[in-house]
Structure formats: structure tokens, C-alpha cells
Amino acid sequence: MSIITLKVNGGTHTLDIDPSTPLLYILRNDVGVQGPHFGCGLGQCGACTVIINGAAVRSCITPCSAVRGEITTLEGLAKDGTLHPVQRAWIEEQVPQCGFCQNGQIMNAKVLLDRNPNPTDAQIREGMAGALCRCMTYYRVQAAIKRAAVSLAAGGPVSDKGGLA
Amino acid sequence: MTTFTNVPKQVEALLEQCSGTISRRKFLESSGLLVVSVGAAAVAGPFAPSANAQAPGPYPDPNFLQLDSWIVIHQDNTATFYVGKTDCGQGTGTAFRQMMSDELDIAYDKTTCIMGRTDITVDQGGSGGSDAIQTDGWPMRRVAAEARRVLLGMASTRFGVPLDQLAVSEGVIAVKADPSRRVTYGELVGGRRFNVTLTGNDINATTGAATVKAVQELRIVGQSPQRYDIPAKVDGSLKWAVDVKVPGMVHARNVKPPVAGAKLVSIDESSVRAIPGFIKVVSKGNYVAVVCEREEQAVKAARQLKVNWQKPATPSFPASEDLYSYMRSATPTSRQGPNVVGNPDAALASAAKVVEAEYDVPFQGHTAFAPAHAMADPSNGQMTIYSNDMKSYGMRSGVAQFLGMPRDQVRVVWMEGPQGYGRTAADDAGFEAAFLAKEIGRPVRVQWMRHEETGWDSKGPAFTFKIRGGLDARGNLIALDYTAQAADYCHLGYNEAETVLIAQLMGTRRATPDAGSAGTPSNMYDIPNKRTATAVVSLPLVWETPLRTGNLRDPNGPQITFAAESFIDEMAAAANADPVEFRMRLLTAGTAEDSGFKRARSIAVLEAAAEAFGWEPRPSPKPLDTGTILTGRGIAYTFRSQTVVAEIAEVEVNRLSGHVWVKRLVCAHDCGLVINPEGLRRTVEGGMLHSLSRALHEEVRFDTEKTTGVDWISHPSLRHADTPARIDVVLVNGDPNPNRPDLPHYGAGETVCRPLIAAVANAIYDATGVRLRRVPFRDVRVLAALKAARV
Questions:
Q1: Distance, CA of B494 to CA of B424 (rounded, Å)
Q2: How far is C-alpha A2 from the geometric centre of its chain's CA atoms?
Q3: Quick one: angle between helices A85-93 and A102-115, nearest 10?
Q4: What is the pLDDT of residue B5?
Q5: Per-window interface: A 26-65 vs B, CB < 8 A
Q6: Residues of A with Cβ-Cβ distance to B712 under 8 angstroms
Q7: In contact, B628 and B656? CB cutoff 8 Å
Q8: Strands B263-268 and B306-310
Q9: Looking at B369-457, which runs of residues are DSSP E strands?
């Protein structure tokens, strides 16, 4: 066991835990966030995705001792009660079926659009390759990403404004 | 009473949110109805004390013959609907609210819907068979209409005017002649009971005295309000079954046998005793689990536990590459048919051309996006299971039987979860959690690991087919001889206590396993001479096997329709006929109708699909393209129950790699009255792509003792890159009298899964001239077929 400090969605959490524990379990069971989900525990499906230093990170295969930097989870995307444009696009497009994978879809889409605000179809397919969905909502996910890109272009970069009014 | 009170705060909060502005307990108090000790049977449904998440039990069944069990009107003029279904992600909850709001005459956004919680929602069986709208929607509509009738009666008494002089709109009843005299539903009955008894021999027949509205009067049905469950799934606030935590809860993980049919010899508990937080190894028969204080500790302990297993002496099953030859030579455990129309032997003997083909479909897994899970709380001598089980009512009965507890002491709180499209109809984790909670005496959360879920979930049955058909000199299909064999045995599907895996591993078994079934094609083709025969075969190992068969989204439809509609395409090609025109000829050859007008509606969906696609009539295959990418189109059609669909796939086949990309899909869909068109479109898209995954990727692989696909690499699934560039869903109403006031609402969800694999196979044939008769169409298999045909 060792003392580990995690910064999550603006809060700081100091925990006495086995440092080899996958970040996902700590986030879900100790920090109390529930956006990231367990899907495979192998880094293959994207359900557990969180954002660290602008990168989509698979929290199910990341030991909590290896985390450097602030962690953003799905709960942390909205700012001041306003949903992120990606989240809004998801609702407008009515993307989810069961919705269990959508954490991975949304978080990966957010990172994709941060890096490439106007992706082509091929870039969307490549950028989202790691996000699996067993309800097969891919068609609507891709439509929502394009919708979000338009919304973001109209409202400026997300990281600066944290969502459109 | 234990100290582990069952107070999952987030669950309570969720229920409060769903139930209106005040908590159920406060609501009951304010209404004067909070009776601390009442006869269990005296208080129905949502008014029962157990409506509160903290209720200590027992948990009697809500009485479906009480209107109060279905609908509660609140003082603020909102309504809560309590229904016994679960939403697998297709938005049925939203559809229920639309249907019930419409009949009740209340605004959609003034309503909420609570589903699948066995102690406060009537038992409509949970989900399955795409029957939510088709079957269960009817009692929902009727009880809502009854509530409206009762409220109008109250208003009539209050104002002293006859019913026909009252108008009702959005939960407000007014006197027509003097609209200032008005009263809301909330003022009439808010916070109080209706105390109205309904009639009906079973829950599906439940009705009051009121009749439902004519279709032309429905205002909310047919619109597309956004699904109410989506915002919380997008902002991370939804509390899923995986999120339930209660004080004192511990974590369990299973230790599965390393090979099918292995027997437990011994466990070395010392191998895990040093793990911090270790509580116990629990084993009974061949079931083994470890329980620890924390989740990661349980994961580690399950990995580390040393268990001595004895392998079975003989192979449990053939290896997957030998499956079809095994099935073809096996002696069937049961047969159906032959059913004969006309004289197929004579017709085949006289045919100008005879075609014969064999088709194979492998076992395909549910492979839910996330593994099985549940949390069971044994507080107060009861058992509460928080679960994403689609058939929560079946689980309640099954667990009660499994644990030897009175049914009233068990309840299942359905919550959202990762969908497996039939997986949770054999919901092992709920049974395991309940068993372990009883053993440990503490709330236990169980979650499988990925390798367990992919390796050991229930599987859709494998099929082999042999079909012969004969054409006359004019290219008419005059004879069809269809045989199908399914590898099906010990079929799971309804959470029976003796069929879930933990029961099997413990040696609790039925005397006779459920044999399962094969099946015959569903179409309205008029073929004068026809024979259909089916058989079921068994693999050597029936119990405790990772090849347990179960209901995978439309249990046998995709397999049967793949063979049936591929073969019709083969016959069309043999007749040198356009595939649409050939099918249309078969549909129009007959005149017999059924009560659902399926012939007329079959013709309508074929026409609609062809038109939406821009189908140009010509025989398949088309002349081979010269480049690397070969393009083609294929059609397939079928029905399921009363829902009729035609689907067209446009493919690109890479001649060098064998890779198939389905570039475009068209679906013409007729499920009668559509409740929520935008919700239906997305359900159709998802269902088609699920079958596309089965067409291109999915196959359960195994050697003679274990499954070898255990994750998303060794058992691939459809990915973003496979997504069609365009999907068109055409909602058709092919009823000969589309404006009739009683137009029924049929089921959607599973029908669209049926024809897709055949449509893709037919498109590949159109593009390449190569007929693929074995699923899935993975690159390597397609490439081999192309090379063999020198394409």
C-alpha cells in the first residue's frame, strides 16, 4: 500500500492503496466517479477511457501509480452546468442504444476533435478505432462527431470556452 | 436484522427522480397512505410499503388487476407509469410513455416511467421477443385509457355535468360550455388511489371499461420525443447496475474450470490467504469464487488461486473447424417435419433446372459489451438483487427457487446495463451474487472478467442447411426442399433455476435438458411444391459447457434467413432473373392472405427498398469489374411475427485482400403503427449493424476442450471502420387499409437482424460471382473463395 494523490475533475484525492491497482477501480470505487466503465480490462474496447494531458487513456490497464497529470472523466466534460458540444451533439443525434460504451465513444471523440477540429470520414474512423460498441451505434456516433465539429467551429475551441452557450 | 441496511443512496435518489418531486416515502406519508403493517396482499404495486428502496420486505407481487399498480397521478398533475418491462436500449421506455400519455391525455413531459422492479412494477415478464410494443403495449394503453375514463367520471360528478359535456386536454378537464370550470387530474386524484379494479385472465388481457383511442386520435404516438434516458448516459450521471454500492458490500470473482467439463479436485486456499482483504473461497460442486473486501483484491485472488481440476476423459465437443461435419453426421436428438406441400420429389424430378446448396452458420456469442454483473444484498433476511437482467421477474423466481427462499422474500431491482441481446435471459451473475451473499451474510457484488464473458456466455446455436430447388422451363421456382440442423441442447432463456451456469456447475440439473429448436424460413413466397424438415443435434457435452445455447437476438432468425434468402438468390441467378423481380414473382403468385396482410406488406417493403436504393433490374452477378474493388448489391427479405422487412446491401469487395466493406444499407420496415419514428430508425440501424458484425466477423472458435476466443482480439466484432457510409431506413405502412382506426403496433428490434447476412452474401455474389455459403465472411475466407474461383 502507498499514499497516492489523484487529481480528478478539479478535485484532489489522496488515497492509501496498492499502487499497482488499475486506475479504473480506484476511480469507480474510491474517487466515486462512474463515467468510466469496465468493459474488458485489457485496453481493447475503450469503455474505461479517461483524458489525461489531452490524451485518451485506458484506465483499466493504467496502474494508478503511473498517472501523471489531471484526470478528466465523462463527468468532468461539462463546465458550469453546460454540456460539452460533443455531449450535446450526442443528445441531438440520439446516439446511444444501451449506452454502456458511450463513455468511450464520447471521450475518444472529444480527444479526436481537440486534435483535429474538422476530421474527414476516414480520420473519424481511424481516430475512433479503439472505441467498441456492441449495440453498433457507430453510424450515429460518426454523425454526432460531424455535428459536434460544426458546433465547435461556430463556437471556438472547447478547451478555451468549455462549451457553447 | 443485519447492520447492512439496503440503502443504496444513488438508487433511492434515482427512484425519487423518476417518481416525481418528492420521495416515495414522503409521498406515501403526505397521502395518508403510509401504513406500517398491512397485509401483504392488501396493498398493491407502487403503493405497497416496499415501494421504498429501504423497505425491509417481504415484497409481494403488485396486483395487475388494480389500476393503482400501473398509474399514479401526483398532486402536481404529473403521472408515473409502472410497467413490467425493461429497456434494452431501444427506447421502449420512451415509447411506453408516449402510448400511455396519449391514452391518458396528459403531456408526455409530465410523465415518468418505472420499469422492471419486481416489487413495485407488475410482472410483464421483462424483455424478450420484441414483444414490448406488440404485446405489452396493449394493456398499458388500456389501463391508461381506463384512468382517463375514471378521471372524467370524477369530473362529471364534481361539476354535475354529463360526460359528453366535458373536454379533456393535457391532464385538465373542463366543462365545454364554460371552460373556466376546470379541474386537473392532480386535483381530482393526486396522491390518492384510484381504487379501481381491472379485469383480465392474464396480464396481457388486463383492461378496464374504457376502450383505447382510434389511431387517428393519437397525438403523441407517431412523434419522436427524444429518449428520456439518453442525457444521463451522455453526462455520466446515470446510475447503472454496475454502480450500486451499499455499506458492507464485498467483491467476488469467479474461478471457472480451465476446460469444459472439468471436475474440481481440490483448492489450495493458502495460495490467496495472504492477499490483503481476502475473506473467503466459496465452492460448491464445480463452482468456485473468491470474495474480498475490495474489487482489485478479488481480481487478484481469482487469478492467483491454486485449484486442482480433473479434465474429462473424452473430448467435450469437436473443434470448431470440424463442427459442421460433426453436425451433419450426428444423430438428431429431435426432429420436426417433414411438412410437405404438393409433390416436391416429382416436381424436382421434372424440373428444367435443379440447384442444391449447403450453408453453415457457426455458434455466435452474445459477447455483451461488458461482462455479467450483479449486486445482491441479504439484509433483513430478504434478498435484493440489483441487476441489468432483461427478465428481472424470471430472475426473481429463479433465485428464490435456487436459494430455497420464499418468492416474496426476493426482489430484483432492474437497472440499466450493457446489452447482450439475450445474454441476461440466462443471467448467471445475479444467481451467483445471491448465492454468495447468502453464504457470506454480506452484500456481494459479482462481476465476470472479459475472458469469462466471451468464453462462457450463452451462444446462439450453430446451423447447417441443405436446400434443393427446381425451376421450370420458364424459370419459375416450382419446388423447394429445405432441411436445417441446429446444434442446440440445454437451451437457456428464462432464468430457470436449474439452467444458469452456477446451478449447472453445482450439479443442479433438469432431468431433461431443453432441446431447443431449428426452424423454417419466414416468407410469403408461393411455391407449389415444398418440403421443410428440421432437426436438432447435440454436442457431446450438454451441461457445464461454454457452448451453452441461448437466445441471441432473434434466436434462429439470422441463421435461417441467411440460408433461405441466399438460396432464393441462387435460384434467381439460375433463372437469370433479377433478384427483386424473382422474389416479387413468388410473392404475387399466391393470393392467400393472413390476418396481418403479410403478403401485401411483403410486396410493399420489397418495392420500397428497391425504390429507396435505386435498384436497376438485372440478373446477378454483374459483369466483373476490372479494378481492385468489386462492387455489388444484394437484397433479402423476411418477416418475424407480423413485422416485415426488406434489406439491401451495397458492398465493396477488395479483390486483393478479400476485405468486404458494406458501403450502404437500405431497410424498408413495416411494423404497423410506429410509436417513435426516430427511435425506430436507430433501433433498425443498430440491429442491422449487429447482424453485419455477425456476417463479417463473429464466430465462436474452440478446440475440443475450451473456447479459444476470449477477448476482442481473438473474438473480433464490428468496429468503426466497418460502418456503412450511408444507411437509409424507410418506414413503410403496407397495410391494404393504412388508415384503419385499429392499425396495430407490431414489434421491432429483432426482425431487422434476420435478412442482413443474406443481403451481404447476395451482394458479394453480385460483385464477384462467388457464392459464400459459410458465415462469417472474414477477409481470409473471402480471399480464399475468390482465389478458388480465379476472381
A1: 9
A2: 27
A3: 130
A4: 31
A5: 28-29, 33-35, 37-42, 44-45, 47
A6: 40, 42, 44-45, 132
A7: yes
A8: antiparallel
A9: 373-377, 383-387, 410-414, 444-447
Q: Which architecture characterizes domain B320-362+458-537 according to CATH? A: 2-Layer Sandwich (3.30)
Domain boundaries, chain B: 9-238, 243-312+372-447, 320-362+458-537, 557-788
User: Which chain B residue is nearest to residue A72, measuring alpha carbons?
Assistant: B236
- A94 and chain B in contact, CB less than 8 A: yes
**Reported pTM:** 0.94
Say whether B607 sits in a helix, a strand or coil: helix
CATH fold for domain B9-238: Aldehyde Oxidoreductase; domain 4 (3.30.365)
Tens digit of pLDDT for each residue in B394-431?
999 999 999 999 999 999 999 999 988 999 988 999 99
The whole-number pLDDT of residue A156 equals 53
Q: What are phi and psi of B637, to 5 degrees?
A: -145, 150
In this complex, do B416 and A135 lie within 8 Å of one another by their Cβ atoms?
Answer: no
Nearest to B360 by CA among B396, B389, B321: B321
Which string of b and e fits B373-406 if b means at least 16 CB within 10 Å?
A: bbbbbbbbebbbbbbbbbbbbbbbbbbbbbbebe
All CATH 3.10.20.30 domain ranges of chain A, comma separated, are 2-76
CB contact under 8 A, A137 and B233: no
C-alpha distance from B785 to closest chain A C-alpha (Å): 28
pLDDT given at position B467: 98
CATH number assigned to the domain covering A2-76: 3.10.20.30
CATH fold label, A85-158? DNA polymerase; domain 1 (1.10.150)
- A48 has a pLDDT exceeding 70: yes
pLDDT in tens, B596-621: 899 999 999 999 999 999 999 999 99
Contacts of A134 in chain B (CB under 8 A): 367-369, 418-420, 690, 717
What architecture is domain B243-312+372-447?
Answer: 2-Layer Sandwich (3.30)
Helix/strand/coil (H/E/C) assignment for every residue in B19-41: HCCCCHHHHHHHCCCCCCCCCHH
Model ipTM? 0.95
Scanning A128-157 for CB atoms below 8 A from B yields 128-129, 131-142
Phi and psi at residue B442, in whole multiples of 5°?
A: -140, 160
- How far apart CA A131 and CA A144 sit, in angstroms, is 14
The beta-carbon neighbor of A134 closest among B240, B369, B683 is B369
In this structure, whether the domain defined by B557-788 belongs to CATH 3.30.365.10 is answered with yes
Q: Does A8 touch chain B (CB under 8 A)?
A: no
CB-closest option in B692, B712, B722 to A44: B712
Mean pLDDT for the stretch of residues A6-30: 97
Pick out chain B residues at pLDDT < 50: 1-45, 48-52
